[in-house]
Amino acid sequence: MSQHHQPSTLAALGRTWVEAWNTGDLERVLALYDEAAVMTSDRIPALGFDASGTVRGKEALRTYWGKALGLLPELHFSLIELFVSPDSVVVFYANERGKKICEYLRVNDAGLIVQGSANHLVG
């Protein structure tokens, strides 16, 4: 279990995460992640990656998100709300198509994201 982070620090990470995605700069996004980060999303198999819906490690994230960004040149996230716990932040946002998404981001002691999970509305 990682140390407890201040709510303001986690909220700032959530805002920085949205800002990084909105730049379209993949390296800026990846700088927020630990080398061993794990990401889960139903979009992972849809883009031809691991059928389990999980990618592991920063290099795998670079490959997956690089492909996704290439397919979504208009990508833009609009922050709706942030929710924090002692070691995570949930970023609730709408994407460029108006779809609402919650992204769970757990952080390590250094404040880097070690686990992410994209959660989409059903239907």
From TrEMBL:
SUPFAM superfamilies: NTF2-like (SSF54427). Pfam families: SnoaL_2. Residues 15-96 form the SnoaL-like domain. This is SnoaL-like domain-containing protein.
